[in-house]
Write a structure and sequence with these properties.
Strand content: 5-15%
Low-confidence stretches: 1-10, 42-46, 297-304
Mean pLDDT: 84
Number of strands: 10
Radius of gyration: 18 Å
CATH topology: TIM Barrel
CATH class: Alpha Beta
CATH superfamily: Aldolase class I
Helix content: 25-40%
Order of helices and strands: HEHHEEEHEHEHEHHEHEHEH
Structural class: alpha/beta
Largest sheet: 8 strands, mixed
């Protein structure tokens, strides 16, 4: 699984990466609901290839703190620039939308807000509490930024008791300067380690992309690093170039290589590994958690 020669800028997608054009009544309903309540979804902003499947299944990953990111990662389609203020009513509109969709599992992520003293942690916490206040049985998964290493900001989110706390490493350390120059690999690992220290019973999760020039050995080292900080769930999917200004795809991984990575992850001790060409961190998120509990239960039974 070593890198191959760089492919042309207009990459021709292999057959296993082709998806249907998003359409359907439920797809339009969710799009309309997001507009009505002035909310954003990472599904739209990051041009996720699974948007049609997920919206038609009645699920969406909400993106809080606006739609402008203070960072400009070379793989990401979200608009970068200078955000405008904070919308303190956003958590309540989000909770109302969750009610209208009758969701029992919600994923919340955000843009990076390095312009804010707490990186937006208060809005994350307020969103979790508002959803749970309306529906105590609803499980909330958050996918947080690194908060520039601010431990108090992370503690604010953890104290709101999300069911799962995720933070993506995205790629291997060697590629950070090119792929996500404002991030730090060790800082991201430390966040996941600290989250487990603050709440050992909370599930933690991370994700990595492939196809940017990494080697198999580098991927396996990232996976081992994640297990060393007791990360529970791992996702891995194919990087797809959002536009000509973003990094080109170095290689398309076939489905069987993702299956091999998933097997390696299980051997390392992850509760669940979701790996496949179209996998993204919140893809089938509720199913990921259900399977992670099943694996943990099986492991406990085997040890007795």
């Amino acid at each position: 699984m070593s890198p191959q020669a760089r492919q042309p800028s207009a990459e021709r997608l292999p057959p296993w990466l082709k998806v249907r054009f998003p359409a359907g009544e439920r797809y339009q309903h969710i799009k309309g609901l997001l507009r009505t309540h002035q909310l954003h979804s990472v599904c739209e902003e990051a041009r996720c290839p699974n948007i049609g499947e997920c919206f038609n299944a009645g699920t969406a990953t909400f993106m809080i703190l606006g739609d402008v990111c203070t960072r400009s990662c070379a793989f990401c389609a979200v608009t970068s620039g200078r955000p405008r203020g904070i919308d303190y009513l956003e958590p309540y509109r989000l909770a109302r939308s969750v009610d209208l969709l009758a969701l029992d599992y919600v994923v919340i992520t955000s843009v990076n807000r390095d312009d804010l003293p707490d990186g937006g942690a208060d809005i994350f916490a307020a969103s979790i509490r508002a959803i749970r206040r309306n529906n105590p049985r609803c499980r909330v998964e958050v996918l947080v930024p690194d908060f520039l290493g601010d431990r108090n900001a992370l503690a604010t989110v953890v104290e709101a008791r999300p069911f799962v706390l995720g933070h993506n490493l995205e790629t291997v350390p060697r590629l950070y300067e090119r792929v996500r120059p404002k991030a730090r690999y060790r800082r991201s690992l430390d966040l996941l380690a600290r989250a487990k220290e603050l709440d050992p019973g909370m599930l933690t999760k991370s994700g990595i992309m492939v196809g940017l020039g990494e080697t198999r050995e580098e991927i396996l080292q990232v996976m081992a690093d994640l297990r060393a900080v007791r990360c529970d769930i791992l996702t891995s999917g194919q990087y797809l170039r959002p536009s000509q200004k973003h990094l080109p795809v170095e290689r398309f991984y076939p489905p069987e290589e993702f299956e091999s990575l998933a097997a390696q992850g299980r051997e390392l001790g992850f509760r669940h590994v979701e790996a496949g060409p179209l996998v993204r961190s919140s893809y089938h998120a509720q199913r990921q958690v259900r399977l992670s509990h099943g694996r943990a239960g099986a492991a406990a039974s085997a040890s007795r």
